[in-house]
Design goal:
Blueprint lengths: L9 H9 L14 E8 L3 H13 L5 E4 L15 E3 L6 H8 L1 H24 L11 E5 L2 H17 L5 E3 L11 E5 L2 E3 L2 H14 L3 E3 L4 E5 L2 E4 L2 E10 L16 E10 L4 H7 L6 E4 L5 E5 L5 E5 L18 H14 L8 E11 L6 E5 L4 E5 L5 H16 L24 H23 L4 H6 L6
Parallel strand pairs: 1-2, 1-11, 2-8, 4-13, 11-18
Antiparallel strand pairs: 3-7, 4-6, 5-6, 9-10, 10-11, 12-15, 12-16, 13-14, 14-15, 17-18
Helix pairs in contact: 2-6, 2-9, 3-4, 4-9
Length: 457
C-alpha cells in the first residue's frame, strides 16, 4: 500500500481501522486497452456514473482511471452531508433558467438524498446513512433575519420543507432560533465511496488505480501506463481538474478543512441536543459545517484556508494550523461541552468552484465527451444526480434528468493570474469581514450583500 492514504482524513483512517478496507491500491492500467466508457477520476462522480451505466447496460466495458485510490479526493474527505443543497440558490436558478426549471432542480436534489439511501441499502454499503435532517442555528439578529428569509423562500417556492424553531430546547450558546431541513442524511463518506467502488466492480466495471491521466481527446485517454481508447470519455475530476491543461481554468480548487474529536458520551450529546443522524451549521458567512458521527464524535469543518497561486494543489495545503485552531475555537464556542474533548484528526482538501458557482452535468454527442462537477462542496449527494444524468445522456435517453437546468450548463472560465489569486482571496477576506461587521454592528453585512451575486445567490 502506498503510504499516507489512511492519513488523508478521519474517514479514510476509520475505514482502515474497521477492518473492512485496507486501502491497498488496485492494479494500475497494464498497458494500452480498449473499452466502451473511460471514466477519468475515481471519486463519487466517476463511480456513480459507472454504477448507473452498468445498471442500464451490464454488457458495457467500463473503466475508471484514478491517479491515487478510489475516494482519495473530496469524496473521502468531506463533511458527510448527503443533503439537497445545490451551489446556486433557488432564486438564482429561477433568474437564469425560469421558475419551472428551478423547481425541477430542487425536486431532483431532494429526491437524490433518498436515492443514495436506497442504493446503499440495495448494494449493502454500510456507510452509517441516517436521515435526520440539518439544524442551522441563528445566533445574532442578522443571522435570524437570514433564517427567516430561508423559511420564507422555502414557503414561497413550495418544494423544500424548512421550518423555523423559535426556541430550541438544546442549542449552542446564544442561539436565538434554528431552521430545520429534513432533506439531509448523515453518512460516512469514505465508507460510501469505497463501497460504491466495490459495487461497480461487482457489476463488471474495472478500476485502475495509481494511474495518472495526462490528457484526453475524442475517443482516447492518455495515461502514464498507456492509452485507453473508448467510445465515450467521462471527466470526473472536480477540483483536481485545475491541474490538467484543458480544464485548468474551468474550476478553481478552494480548500476546506476539518477536525474530528474523540467520542463523547451519550449524556453529553443529550445536553448538546444533536441527535444521531443530524448535521448542523449556523448562519455565519464564513461557512462551517458539522455532524455527530455514528461513533459519537464531532466531525467539524469550515472554510478559511486561502486559495493558492495558479490553482496549485499540494499535500501541505491540506493542513493549516491556523485554520485548525480556528475550527477548534469555533466548535468550543458553539458547544462548550466539547472543551475537554481531544481532537484526534485534522485534515482538508480542495473542492471545485466554477466561475458562476453553478454545477453542471454535460455531454457532447459529437465528441462523446461527458463531464460533471463544480459542486462547491455540495457534492456528496449531487454526484449521485450527476451519475444518473450522465448515464441517461450517454445512453441517449430523454428523461426528466436530462432536461434539468444544470444539464449542459457551461460556466465561464476563471480569470488569468494574478486576477484569480487576488479575487479569490479577497472574497475569503470579505466573508471574514462580513461576520466581524455583523458582530460589531448587529446589522446585516453590506460586504456580504455585495458578494452575494458572485456566489450564485
Amino acid at each position: 500500500m502506498k503510504s499516507g492514504y489512511r492519513d488523508l482524513s478521519f474517514w479514510l483512517d476509520s475505514v482502515v481501522r474497521s477492518g473492512a478496507d485496507e486501502l491497498a491500491a488496485r492494479a494500475s492500467l497494464p498497458g494500452d486497452s480498449s473499452v466502451d466508457v473511460a471514466i477519468v477520476g475515481g471519486g463519487l462522480t466517476g463511480l456513480w456514473t459507472g454504477y448507473y451505466l452498468l445498471k442500464r447496460d451490464p454488457g458495457l466495458r467500463v473503466a475508471v482511471i484514478e491517479k491515487n485510490i478510489a475516494g482519495f479526493g473530496a469524496s473521502g474527505r468531506n463533511g458527510g452531508w448527503c443533503s439537497a443543497l445545490f451551489p446556486a440558490s433557488v432564486a438564482g436558478l429561477e433568474r437564469r433558467h425560469g421558475l419551472e426549471a428551478a423547481l425541477a432542480m430542487r425536486r431532483a436534489m431532494i429526491d437524490t438524498v433518498d436515492e443514495v439511501g436506497r442504493v446503499t441499502h440495495v448494494e449493502g454499503i454500510d456507510c452509517d446513512f441516517a436521515k435526520a435532517g440539518t439544524l442551522v442555528y441563528a445566533r445574532s439578529r442578522p443571522q435570524l433575519a437570514r433564517a427567516r428569509a430561508d423559511v420564507a423562500e422555502a414557503a414561497h417556492y413550495g418544494v423544500d420543507r424548512v421550518e423555523l424553531i423559535e426556541s430550541p430546547v438544546a442549542a449552542p450558546v446564544g442561539t436565538l432560533a434554528a431552521t430545520f431541513d429534513p432533506a439531509c442524511a448523515r453518512l460516512h463518506p469514505a465508507k460510501l465511496v469505497r463501497g460504491l467502488a466495490r459495487a461497480v466492480e461487482r457489476l463488471g466495471g474495472t478500476i485502475y488505480e495509481e494511474t495518472e491521466v495526462l490528457d484526453w481527446s475524442t475517443g482516447s485517454v492518455l495515461t502514464t501506463h498507456g492509452t485507453v481508447t473508448a467510445d465515450t470519455v467521462v471527466l470526473a475530476t472536480e477540483g483536481y481538474g485545475s491541474a490538467l491543461p484543458k480544464t485548468r481554468r474551468r474550476v478553481l480548487p478552494l480548500y476546506s478543512l476539518m477536525i474530528a474529536t474523540e467520542p463523547l458520551g451519550d449524556d453529553t450529546w443529550r445536553e448538546i441536543g444533536i441527535e444521531q443522524g443530524q448535521t448542523f451549521a449556523d448562519y455565519r458567512h464564513l461557512l462551517i459545517y458539522g455532524q455527530r458521527t455514528a461513533d459519537n464524535r464531532f466531525a467539524f469543518g469550515g472554510r478559511g484556508a486561502r486559495y493558492h497561486w495558479g490553482s496549485s494543489i499540494r499535500p501541505e495545503y491540506d493542513r493549516v494550523p491556523r485554520v485548525f485552531e480556528h475550527l477548534r475555537r469555533t466548535l468550543v464556542e458553539l458547544f462548550p461541552q466539547a472543551a475537554d474533548a481531544a481532537v484526534t484528526h485534522r485534515w482538508g482538501g480542495p473542492l471545485g468552484v466554477p466561475r458562476d458557482w453553478h454545477a453542471h452535468a454535460s455531454f457532447d454527442p459529437a465528441t462523446r465527451i461527458a463531464s460533471a462537477g463544480g459542486y462547491v462542496g455540495d457534492g456528496l449527494s449531487t454526484t449521485n444526480l450527476a451519475g444518473r444524468t450522465l448515464a441517461d445522456l450517454i445512453t441517449g435517453q430523454d428523461t426528466e434528468l436530462t432536461r434539468l437546468p444544470w444539464t449542459n450548463h457551461r460556466s465561464p472560465s476563471w480569470e488569468l493570474e494574478p486576477l484569480r489569486f487576488v479575487g479569490s482571496n479577497l472574497g475569503l477576506l470579505a466573508m471574514e469581514a462580513a461576520d466581524l461587521e455583523e458582530r460589531i454592528t448587529r446589522y446585516p453585512s453590506l460586504a456580504a450583500k455585495l458578494m452575494a451575486p458572485l456566489t450564485g445567490h
